[in-house]
Amino acid sequence: MAPSLVVLVLSLLLGIQPVTTDLYLPALPALTEGFGAPVSQAQLTLTTLLLAFGSSQLLWGPLSDRYGRRPVLLAGLAAYTLASLGCVFAPTMATLIAWRMVQGAAMGAAVMCARAIVRDLYQPEAGARVMSKGLTGLGVIACTCAPLGGLLSDVLGWRHALAALAVFGAAALAVVALRFEETLPRKNPCALQPATLMRTWWTILRHPGFLAWTLLSIASYAGLFTFLASSSFVFIKVLGLSRTQFGLLMFSMSLVYIGGTFLCRRLLPRLGVRRSVAIAGAISLSGGTIMGVLAWAGLHNGWSVMLPFYLFMLAHGIHQPCSQSGAVGPFPQAAGAASALNGFLMMVAAFGVGGWIGWRLDGTVFPLTNGVWFWSAVIAATAWTLVQRHGLAQRA
Q1: Residues of the chain with confidence (pLDDT) below 50
Q2: Fewer Cβ in 10 A, N or C end of the chain?
Q3: How many domains does the chain have?
C-alpha cells in the first residue's frame, strides 16, 4: 500500500473513536431529556461503550494475530455499522445503552488494528511519526464531529446525530474492503491457544517499557475523557452555551490537538521520543494547573476552562502517538496482543473516570477542572520518571 493510503486507513480507524464519542456529545443533554432519564444513566451511554471497547480488544488482538488484520477489520466495521443503526432506532435509554455496548465492542477492532498495523509496517520511532500522521487525521475528523453533532441535534434532532455514526462506519468499511491489504507478515497459528495467550499477556505485562508507555497513554486519555464526559453538561447546563457554540469549542480543541501532532513530528527527529514527552509533560502540567487555579479563584466561564485546556490538548497530541507506538514497539510478533492490552487498560481507566464524573456532576465546573488538574500531574510524573527510565524500546 502507498504511504498515503496507510495514513488514510489509520485516520479512519483511529478517527472512529472521536466520531463515536464526540459527535453525539452536543446531543447528550437533549437525548437525556428525550428519554426522561437521569444524568447518571445518560453517562452510561459513554462509559459502557468504553468498557466494551476496551474489553473487546482482548479478543480482537489475538484474533488479528491468528487470522490477520483485514478479516478482523471487516467483521468489526460491519458490526459497528449495524450497531449504529440500532442506536438510531432505540426506543428506550436501556436499549440505546445496549446498542452502544455492541458499538463499542465493534469499535475495538478498528482502533486495536490501527496500532498493530503501525507495528507491522514500521520500527518504533518511525512508527511514532506515522502514528502522529494518523492521529492528525483523527484530529481533522474530530474537528467536524462536535460542530456537526451540534448542528444535527439543533436542526434535525438528536437521532440524526446518532445516524451520522452509521454513515461513517459504512464509509470506513468500504475503504477497508476495497483498498486495504493485509499487513501481518506472518500469522501465528497458536495465538488463540489459552496457554500461549496467557504466556504472551504475562510477557507483555512484565515488560517495564510497556508499563511506562501504557501508564502515560492512560493518564493522557483519562484527562481528555474527564473533559469529554463532563463538558457538554458543564458548558451547556452550567455556563449557558448553546449546543452549536459547544460544538465550535470542541472544534477549536481538535484544531489544537492537530497542532500537537504536527509539533510531535518536529520534536521527534531533533529530541527523540523520551525528551519529547518530557517537554509535553511540562505543557500538560501547566495547562491542568492553570485551569484548576482559575476555577478555585472563582473564574467560571468558557475561556477560563478552554484556554488552559488548549495546553493540555497540545501536549496530548505528543503523548498519544509516542505512548501508543512505544507500548507496542517491543512486541513485533505479538503486536495485536500488546495493542489490545494497551487499549484495554486505557478504557478501564476511562470507564472509572466516567463513572466518577457521572456521580460528581454537581452544577459547577469543579468535577471537570479538578479532574484534568489531577491527570495532568500524573502525566508529568510518568513522563519525567518511568518513561525516562524504561522508555527505550527493547524487544521482548
Answers
A1: none
A2: N
A3: 1
